Amino acid sequence: MSGTATNGRRVVVTGIGVVSPLAVGAELTWKRLIEGQSGIGRITHFDPSDLPAQVAGQVPDGPTAEGGLTLSDWVPVKDQKKMDRFIHLGLAAAIQAVEDSGWKPEDEDDRCATGVMIGSGIGGLQTIYDGSLTVSSGKARRLSPFFIPSALINLISGHLSIRYGFKGPNHAVVTACATGVHAIGDASRLIQYGDADVMIAGGAEAAICSLGIAGFCSARALSTASNDDPTKASRPWDKDRDGFIMGEGAGVVVLEELEHAKRRGAKIYGEIGGYGMSGDAHHITAPAEGHEGAFRAMKAALRNSGGLTTADIDYVNAHGTSTMADDLELDAVERFFGEDAKRLVMSSTKSAIGHLLGAAGAVEAIFCLQAIRDGIVPPTLNLDNPARESVIDRVAHVAQQRKIDVALSNSFGFGGTNASIILKRFKD
Amino acid sequence: MSDIADKVKKIVVEHLGVDESKVTPDASFIDDLGADSLDTVELVMAFEEAFSVEIPEDAAEKIATVKDAIDYIEKQKAA
Q: Modified residue O-(pantetheine 4'-phosphoryl)serine is at which positions (chain B)?
């Protein structure tokens, strides 16, 4: 038996979709990412003047062909007001992924073997804010009947299943900033266990609203030092980093059982090579010293990788949010890789797009697949003066050409939840 | 067509995203204009807001067509 372990059923990725501050579209986002572009700018979704943090990674409006968001290309106008923005962005990424995969269930068996697991860290925050204003102004009876289904996190999965007739498992993950990795990892296990042959999986987030920014500001999590120079604000591992930059967007993949993908001649981006989880049991927002939870998540991912070792892993897409916790993750990665750390490259793509919270892990897993496909490692922007030295090459400023066969992506969330996923080049 | 009928028609077009030509007096919101039960709840709220009338739930349940809505609102306004 080769590949991942359970039941011998191997899981490959056959479609990708991205909505990010760099572009709507997986390939345009990737192109701009490896060119070293930044998607961070001053917040325009609302007036942030009253708040200490005033920059974010917002999805650009514009024609679809130029990588902008034209919502009516993804969601019919009459349905748009029934969904919060996080659902809009999630659907735009999911539709891209499904179309990219070419998978169209032909009969009832196919439909029942195709499921959806797209989550979000926070869900419809702007919708909840607006709804509470309606109620507090004495107009409770005027609250839209679409208020609840607009805000519920599992409604991306719901809407997508209705659109395409996917009748398999319909699920959604909510684990803060680990959502995207948990969704892809858990969905791959549903395929391994035979609950589905195809799963559409990922995460979406749209929390750049006054309530979202104010909340993370109060938690002292956001950068406030670079309001006048937004593209410099997200600087993972740099000594001048001072908090994360909120991003919005979505990442969705089509996961497919290998034989199913082969039978229909699907294009294969790569294989799910391992997946591990852990809990910190330490603090609601801060990781433990040495980030031992991250260490255990990476160890767990390797344990069910079908025999991979740290020597096989070429690239780590770090959680690296541009906060004090960056160096704790670095500690954990160094300890985990030991001697193999010397040949490792690791970057944080949050330097270019900010932290997409529940979408981050899914978008970053897609970057890993693109890095494997193209032999290019995306850069860590703004890493001018590392806060501490490391034997690990953190790909400062510019992308590197390098053969990548196996990549690992880390995501950690509030509450002390950790997830690591391994993506590897597909070999039959 | 009365002002009320005009305004009702406009609200229906806007909320259900249908072509104006389909919004005939006899058109049923659910059977002809593609609304679901939540759409009709929202539609009634929009009528209440636009015409400053109260439409109690038992009355709202009987509003199935464009004409039903126009008639109900005209009656409220005349009273």
A: 37
**Helix residue ranges, H only, A102-224:** 108-112, 125-136, 147-151, 155-164, 179-192, 210-218
pLDDT per residue as tens digits for the range A7-58: 789 999 999 999 999 999 999 999 999 999 999 999 999 999 999 999 999 9
Place of tokens 């009987």: B62
Please name which of A30, A29, A91, A33 lies closest in space to residue A60, comparing C-alpha atoms: A29
Query: What pLDDT is recorded for position A3?
Result: 45
* CATH classification of the domain holding B69: 1.10.1200.10
Query: Is the predicted pLDDT of residue B58 greater than 80, yes or no?
Result: yes
In single-letter form, the type of residue at position A42 comes to R
pLDDT tens profile A227-244: 999 999 999 999 999 999
Annotated catalytic residue A260 = no
A78, A141, A145 ranked by CB distance to B38: nearest: A145
A78, A146, A149: residue with CB nearest B16 = A78
Place of tokens 């890493």: A383
Residues in chain B closer than 8 A to A78 (CB atoms): 15-17
| Signed CA dihedral, A31, A239, A325, A230: sign only | negative
Predicted pLDDT at B39: 95
Backbone angles phi, psi at A12, to 5 degrees: -120, 160
Quote the pTM value. Answer: 0.96
Strand-pair category, A114-119 with A170-171: parallel
Q: Helix, strand, or coil here: A276?
A: strand
Query: In whole angstroms, what is the distance from residue A84 CA to residue A65 CA?
Result: 24
Smallest CA–CA separation between B11 and chain A, in Å? 12
Question: How far off is chain B from A265, nearest CA to CA, in Å?
Answer: 38
How many pairs of residues across A and B have Cβ atoms under 8 Å apart? 20
Using only C-alpha atoms, what is the Rg of chain B? Answer: 11
Which of A218, A181, A183, A209 has the alpha carbon at shortest distance from A124?
A209
Q: Identify the pLDDT of residue A5.
A: 46
Q: By the CB < 8 Å criterion, does A146 face chain B? A: yes
Q: For chain B, how many structural domains are there in total? A: 1
Tell me the torsion sign for CA atoms A52, A56, A61, A62.
positive
Residue B52 has pLDDT above 90, yes or no: yes
Domain interval for residue B60: 3-78
Structure tokens at A192: 């391994």
pLDDT in tens, A100-151: 999 999 999 999 999 999 999 999 999 999 999 999 999 999 999 999 999 9
Reported as a single tens digit per residue, the pLDDT across A241-255 is 999 999 999 999 999
Residues of chain A in contact with residue B23, where contact means CB-CB under 8 angstroms, are none
CB-based contact B38 A146, cutoff 8 Å: yes
CA–CA distances in Å: residue A428 to residues A12, A194, A260, A369, B62: 11, 20, 13, 17, 63
In the residue annotation, A171 being an active-site residue is answered as: no
* Average pLDDT value for chain A: 97
